[in-house]
# Entry
Amino acid sequence: MKTVGQLAVDSLAAQGVDRLFCVPGESYLGLMEALHGHKQIDTVVCRHESGAGFMALADARLTGRPGVACVSRGPGACNAAIAVHTAQQDGVPFILFVGQVAKDDVRRDSFQEIDYGQMFGRIAKWTAEVTDPKRMAETLLRAFQVATTGLPGPVVIAVPEDVLTAQVEADTVQPQALVQAAPDAAALAQLRDWLAEAERPLLLAGSGLENEAGRRALKDLAEAWNLPVLVSFRRQDLFPNDHPLYAGDMGLSNPPSQLELLRQSDLLVTLGARLSDITSQGFSFPQMVRPEMRLVHVHADPDVIGVHFGADLALACDPVGCAEALGQPDSAPPARQDWLSALASERAKIQAVTDKEQPDGIAFARVVESVGAHLAEDAIVTVDAGSFGAPIYRAIPFKPPQRLLAPISGAMGFGVPAAVAAGLRAPERPVVCFVGDGGFLMTGSELAVALERKLPLKVILAENKVYGSILLHQERDYPGHWTGTTFTNPDLEAIGGAYGCEVTRLENLSDLDRLPELIARPGPQFIVVTSSVEALLAPVRTGGKHEG
# Structure
């Protein structure tokens, strides 16, 4: 006999979970008791439930296993909801445990009670409420299966506080076999024929390749068949950005000239990516509903294939296995040099960085360019949401094993918690966090965990005292009417020092000479950049676009 809380913790350990993130609450004391002194699971105590959730998501991105967070009922679950939504949008396996009111008080509108099935609705892949101790084992089994199968995503498990302490006779839940589907032999043969005859092919890579084997399979496939590679939104670390076959990313501000060129493709192979609104440029590339080129869609989850774009070939299978199964061509693939040169030319236009001095600080693109030129080969880069981050996806030449952890959902507050999780998971690797002042003031308090764990994070904070992404849209639609998009900051340098960091402020272009040395120092660095608002708004004022 063991408590339900002990069963849950032992089962998490059996499933390979070695770290979980939490903000404590009286509604799951039974789970916390089971974690006490546990030798296989590191309990990371966070300062806010959103931070705990974001840390779990970043950890999942790095390990490939479900990230786990534990929060209390009501307010705790509400605060963690942003992580559930982010996991759903980003396709990240995530399990959120919520302590619930006592079993007899459920559905009585009790203190801090919420019906989590109603609350999380469609943003969670599955929501369970365990009111019978004997149902805990099967709930855990299903939770891991749902979170990791097909398109990964979030599962929410609510357990009443008295159920967690109830005794149950049940075996620890062991891992079950992975659900695997092999590509159809006839479909593979058809795809090989199309790859061999295509004059202007494109390979669009997405999150289904986000592991070491996936990155290796993608590179091998592209090189074997001489295929230019695009990456889906904020997935630049899937393929070496300095590779001659890298054609760029599908982001928020692809220029019309590039999209016009991409539409000339005669074969688009979408490998492990969802053709969501941003990757498909507002559902305009390819054209709906029958694309202008042959479309091959390979994804582990059949539910994401054929949703908006009709595929000429649909393979519901592991994209890594599919890439590996395609193997080598029977003869040398076409050179396609004119096509590759045109794609490279368009990508080079996007990557250009301005040298212009600004009257109100540094164009943050210059900071990004400097960091990218000196980034360690095994660095992990975390990025918060916001316009300050736009240059990061274009100016830093990511190449495996470097990692990029950025919220596909566009959730502010992700950057610092993600950096903390990365520092905990890979203490031997440099971790660089890019964050704006708005995002930092949301979850920057998670640096307390970095202080506690002695993590040598490098935080680069863009301070311009505006909500930049919103200001861009405001300036475009209502020029000069800045309402609700400016704010006053506390002393950010003092805050960085309070968290045990060495603090530096960069105010003009000449200060950038110090940046490579600061990034290379062994201890925690907190680098505040006086970031130019004028540089931020320049594209809008000249009739261009800017990624937010």
The chain has a mean pLDDT of 95.
